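Lab notes, practical 5.
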Amino acid sequence: MTTQRTKIHEERVVWDFPIEAVWSLVSSFGAIQAWMPSITYCAVDGHGVGATRTVIGLAGEVKETLEVLDDKEHFISYRIKDPVPLPAKGGFGSWKLESKGENKTTIVWTADAEEVAVEAIPELQKVYEPFMKDCLAGLKKALS
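Output from the prediction step:
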């Protein structure tokens, strides 16, 4: 049974980088500290799907479990373990990459949750939007 999730925020960008270059960073579950500016610590327990990473950043310590890692479809999704200091439960982050030619890639990063009050979404977007934009800027810098 799949639980319905509510989208909190989504960032979509198209960059002039080959998909495999972007994927090599995005899919490295334990290496986000290399490009995510607000992360001061990252450690991974396990390998592949089911691995859990502990990150420390602006929101304090957060644990995330890798749920999907699909190299063929260039899709990665992770569950944010509760509790988190936000009015949402069962949070997820998902990245989908799509090649738009030899050196162009569409990146879609989605934040959603299993439980979130609709009236809380605008406030959550005020947190997620600048965070995600900052992270994407860090990723772009790492790719350059």
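Observations recorded by the TA: DSSP finds two helices and seven strands in the chain. The radius of gyration is 15 Å.
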